[in-house]
Amino acid sequence: MVLAFNFPVAGAKVKQWNILKVGIFIAFLITGLTLETKAIADEVKNIKVLSAAIISSLVLFPLITFLLVNIFYKNTSDFVVGACIIATAPATVASGTVLTAIARGNIPLSLFICIASNFTAIFTIPFSLNFLLRFNQSMNLPVFAMIKSLILIVLIPVILGQILRIKARHLIVPYKKLFSIFSQLIVLLIIFNAVSSSTSKISHMGHKIIFVFAFMILLHAIILLLNFGLSRLMRLNIASTAAFTIHTSQKTLTVSYIVWAGYFAADLPLALIPPIAYHLTQMIMDTFLAHRFHELAKN
Question: pLDDT tens, position by position, for the chain (299 residues)?
Fold first, then answer.
């Protein structure tokens, strides 16, 4: 963010040269290469948990966010749209699984939630956003164009990665750490690009940016409690509770950026600030939560 304020021209070049589009495509290709889909085979039969994860992440999360953001930011289009974008996004690919591992959680279940959420969200995001934003933004989004772009940028590279994995499974093992670093760099580049394209407007926000983070802390706390409660209702063991609570509550900044950059960046340059704030919030809060689950698992 500091670099973005000092070198905003570089952010424009990132967009002009399509660096992020290529980087995001490669990041999802890597996701396909590294996803241990066989490891989740035992979880496929657990329809109850899968259904709860999808409903919580892609139905309840957007509805709760929409209600809250209209209480606090009803007259601020950028923040209403931004909050709805992150709310309708799927679960994170990497960090949710990593934090589940730290928590000694059920990693196959975590992967299952991740895959199901991402594949489903490609088709639900356009309809969900169109439904939510019609209430007070008077927006009619190009739903099928959005589905097409998400399939091209997210789904196709993941499928290609899975196909390549058949032959390259053993070759990629030494590079897993580099793959993880690359994915994190893409997230940082998204933040850099978003901030550099709206530095003047962010400067005018001043202390208001604090309230955006406060809102995201409140939202994430509510979602964590919701998912923990759902896991208790389903009587999941502590490992599965950790996986369900953490991964179902997380959202990906990468897909949020694709939606924002494709359909909202020109008119609502600040609309990516709420997703960035949520991303940073979930990483910090869920790290503490993962260590708490780790202690419970030991006992």
Answer: 788 777 777 777 776 777 777 887 887 788 777 776 666 666 667 788 889 999 999 999 999 999 999 888 877 888 999 999 999 999 887 677 778 878 888 878 887 888 888 889 888 998 999 888 876 555 566 667 777 777 877 778 878 888 888 777 777 777 777 887 887 787 778 778 767 766 666 666 667 788 888 999 999 999 999 999 999 999 999 999 999 999 999 998 888 888 888 888 888 888 888 998 898 888 889 889 988 998 887 76
CATH topology assigned to domain 2-298: Na+/H+ antiporter like fold (1.20.1530)
Model pTM score: 0.80
Domain regions of the chain by residue span? 2-298
Which letter, b or e, does each residue of 211-235 get, where b requires 16 or more Cβ atoms within 10 Å of its Cβ? ebbebbbebbeebbebbbebbeeee
Main-chain dihedrals φ then ψ at residue 45, nearest 5 degrees: -70, -10
